[in-house]
Amino acid sequence: MSRAHAHRVVVTGIGAVSTFGVGAEVLWRQLRAGISGIGPLHHTEAKQLRVRVAAQLPPTFDPAAYIPEGTLTMLDRSAQFALIAANEAVSQSGLEFSSKQLSARSGVVIGCGVGGDTTHDEQSRRLYKDNAVRLHPLTIVRIMINASASQISIAHGLRGPAFVVASACASSNHAIAQAMQIIRLGLADVMLSGGTDSCFSFGHLRAWEAMRVLADDTCRPFTANRRGLVLGEGAAVFVLESLTHAQARGARIIGELAGFGMCSDAADIVAPDAGGAGTAMTLALADAGLKAADIDYVNAHGTGTRANDAVETRAIHQVFGPHAQQVAVSSTKSMHGHALGAAGALELVAILGALRDDVVPPTANFDQADPECDLDYVPNTGRALKIRAALSNSFAFGGMNAVLAVTRM
Questions:
Q1: Does residue 360 sit within a domain?
Q2: Which of 363, 362, 368 is nearest to 382 (CA)?
Q3: Which candidate, 59, 42, 345, places its Cα nearest to that of 205?
Q4: C-alpha–C-alpha distance, residues 98 and 96, integer Å
Q5: I want to staple 63 with a disulfide (CB 3.0 to 4.6 A). Which of 80, 168, 195, 373 is the partner?
Q6: Which domain holds residue 279?
Q7: Which residues are CB-contacts of 408 (< 8 A; sequence separation ≥ 6)?
Q8: How many domains does the chain contain in total?
Q9: Do 109 and 131 sit in the same domain of this protein?
Q10: If we measure between CA atoms, which residue out of 195, 231, 200 comes closest to residue 77?
């Protein structure tokens, strides 16, 4: 496995917020055990909706337990998640950004598909339903899509590059790829990166219902009777460092982000394309200096829709050839739901956990094989497996593809 890049990129901190609550280790333990966080939709308008299942944080979640009141008033739910996850990741990394030199050489790139959706919905109701003359004075800073990156930058004094990437369900992987590239180019030593989203507004749920891609029971990717995706919410943020910077300070290295691949289908706005998905995987392997035979695990995009799962299966066959039958493939969306802009980040938590513990998380709710989906999907129960390298697939509406290659050190 060659590493041709001048600055190799490693992970030294992880933080997460998910349907299982606050904490990256909490998320990984549930995924490893094959426990699904999908349950009844918690929403005041749930009775008006046809689909009533989701992967949401527990109703007992209280952001005030993690964020000071003065900051909390400026944050939409998606930015709350991102800041909580970032705080955990920084704490785990042991970094402090008090020195001007490190502050100037540290930045943040967050993926976000929707942004301040709940705030937008709430304030629109006030305007159009309640005929409010004035809206909340902090509405703009809550709904702007760059809010999560800005708030993380402010909270930790990160004065390097700071921005948000929005590419629907590929947002997290695109953001992490951009953060990797910033470090590789020597523009920063440390980057916080990941993704966040929370889209459980009434309007957003109605819009998803109109597309007729939501499951009405649970998410069962790659199975014959799969009925669609289940929306989730959450965030995951990672501390990325150049290898030399991490080693110089004696940091605990969790894993290496060895490569990425990005491309566009340039075809249909919603229909997936095996050629585009395959190209992104091939580019990630090449960037990492890996061969298909080096990959032991693929964390699939695996949404549970009829089209996506069959197309992704074909793409894996195209890229891996005969080795496709030896690769463990699973979709953790069967447990944490499809968190849209946060999806790839939550899935990277799963990959890093799998590398650390030598356990592949399963595809939950797997009950009946589909002839069109003929790979090893690690059904229902996690599997002990020595993992050298893994791919994380994210394929989005709009034909946007982003794949990460991750290795142990």
A1: yes
A2: 362
A3: 42
A4: 6
A5: 80
A6: 258-407
A7: 255, 256, 355, 387, 388, 389
A8: 2
A9: yes
A10: 200
Q: Please provide the DSSP assignment of 8-38 as one string.
A: -EEEEEEEEEETTEE-HHHHHHHHHTT----
Task: Give bridge partners of residue 191 from the DSSP assignment.
Answer: 107, 240
Same domain, 147 and 237: yes
CATH number, domain with residue 93: 3.40.47.10
Identify the pLDDT of residue 4. Answer: 67
Same domain, 213 and 301: no
CA dihedral 281, 108, 91, 69 (to 10 degrees): -130
Pick the closest to residue 330 from 305, 350, 306 (CA basis).
Answer: 350
Q: Residue 1 — pLDDT band, cuts 50, 70, 90?
A: very low
Average pLDDT estimate for 302-326: 98
Question: Angle, to 10 degrees, between the axis of helix 306-320 and the axis of helix 274-288?
Answer: 40
DSSP helix/strand/coil, 373? strand
Dump pLDDT digits (tens) for 212-268.
Answer: 999 999 999 999 999 999 999 999 999 999 999 999 999 999 999 999 999 999 999
- Active-site residues, by number, are 169, 301, 338
Q: Is-contact 241 10, C-beta < 8 A?
A: yes
Residue 2 lies in a domain: no
Q: Which helix (H) or strand (E) holds 205?
A: helix 202-211
Lowest mean pLDDT among 88-97, 117-126, 298-307, 378-387: 117-126
Q: What backbone phi and psi angles, to 5 degrees, belong to 181?
A: -65, -35
Mean pLDDT of 396-407: 98
Q: Is the pLDDT of residue 306 over 50?
A: yes
Residue 154 lies inside a defined structural domain of this protein = yes
Q: What is the pTM of this model?
A: 0.97
In DSSP notation, 282-343 reads HHHHHHHT--GGG--EEE------HHHHHHHHHHHHHHHGGGGGGSEEE-THHHH-B-GGGH
Task: Output phi, psi for 364, to 5 deg.
Answer: -75, 165
In a shared domain, residues 240 and 343: no
Q: What is the pLDDT of residue 178?
A: 98
Are residues 271 and 243 part of one domain? no
Q: What is the pLDDT of residue 409?
A: 87
In a domain, 253, yes or no: no
